[in-house]
Design a protein that fits this description.
seven-stranded parallel β-sheet; 29% helix; 7 strands; 331 residues; sialyltransferase cstii, chain A; 2 domains; alpha/beta
């Protein structure tokens, strides 16, 4: 009888273990845990970069990895903030989106260069007629943002792109802009951005409600090209670089960093030397070109209540004057 009871007990324990593995093999959202291939650590340089004093963590993996982003949230304090500065209240959205990606790697596995020289290419009209294309293409890492085109502007801005930061309202949808060597990095400002990515990658119906303008309805990038930027990088841009308050007065609309400043924050975490191009604007002439492409003028910049462009220009002026970065479009 005793042996019988022991057998029943052991069977119950085994059944509990099996059920535990099945139930916890998927989370409450029904998305299997994402096992991305192991990330390759960013190799440190022997010398500190000029901008090291601006950073809390000099070496930080900037892309979300599906298998451990929740565990690392406490280390980076991502669990204390909601989007765009953390994962609080959006864990499910991150899991959905990450479940469709294939890797969180930073660079190619054959890339052995530890101390990278990088250029962050803004979209400013100052790039017009500068013929910096060949110079920009000579860098180890070239970071661009949003829908600043390369096609048709190669002489001004170059041909190569390592990373392109985007959000749903700013990403390319025309396949002529696709570059198979580009890693496209989603900067999630709201939970809807992650939902949008998941729906595109699963060929689902795209809900366009809740976006400030119509988002892209197709992706020109393959899943292996896509990453999701860790909100810590965006938070670094806002709180550490621009010194924005962590809480704005109730009646004041919160300000967030532009994609350009976020791109600089990314460069600070993965590069040893950072140069800038296309970040200077002519605020004295509202009819001057806003971008190196298209017909938008500086008048459009004054209508943007989401960003603090004055604070960003002062920050850029400071890091350029202190030689923390090199500005290729100073004149």
């Amino acid at each position: 009888m005793r042996a019988y009871l022991v057998a029943i007990f052991l069977s119950a324990v085994f059944l509990y273990y099996v059920l535990h593995c099945i139930l916890w093999g998927t989370n409450v959202y029904g998305v299997p845990p994402v096992e991305m291939k192991p990330r390759k650590k960013v190799q440190p340089c022997l010398e500190r970069p000029a901008f090291a004093s601006l950073l809390r963590f000099s070496q930080f993996h900037p892309f979300m990895c599906g298998s451990d982003f929740e565990q690392l949230a406490a280390v980076s304090q991502n669990d204390r903030y909601g989007l765009p500065y953390g994962i609080r209240t959006s864990v499910g959205h991150f899991r959905f989106a990450l479940s469709r990606l294939q890797t969180c790697d930073l660079f190619d596995e054959f890339d052995k260069e530890p101390c990278k020289k990088c250029v962050v290419v803004g979209n400013g009209g100052v790039l017009k007629n500068k013929t910096l294309g060949d110079k920009i293409d000579s860098y180890d890492v070239i970071i661009r943002m949003n829908n600043g085109p390369v096609v048709g502007h190669e002489e001004e801005v170059g041909r190569r792109t390592t990373f392109r930061l985007f959000y749903p309202e700013s990403v390319f949808s025309d396949p002529s802009h696709n570059d198979p060597n580009t890693t496209a990095v989603l900067v999630a400002f709201k939970p809807l951005d992650l939902k949008w990515l998941f729906e595109l990658l699963t060929s689902g119906n795209i809900d366009t409600n809740g976006f400030w303008k119509k988002p892209a309805l197709n992706l020109i990038y393959k899943p292996h090209q896509i990453r999701i930027l860790d909100p810590y990088i965006t938070r670094t841009a806002a709180h550490d670089l621009l010194r924005f308050p962590k809480a704005f007065p109730r009646r004041q609309k919160p300000k967030h960093p532009t994609t350009g400043i976020i791109a600089i924050a990314l460069a600070f975490h993965i590069c040893h030397e950072v140069h800038l191009a296309g970040f200077r604007y002519n605020f004295l002439d509202i009819d001057s070109p806003l971008h190196y492409y298209g017909n938008a003028t500086m008048a459009l910049m004054s209508k943007n209540a989401y960003h603090n462009v004055t604070a960003e220009q002062l920050f850029l002026k400071d890091i350029i004057e202190k030689r923390l970065v090199i500005n290729l479009t100073q004149d």
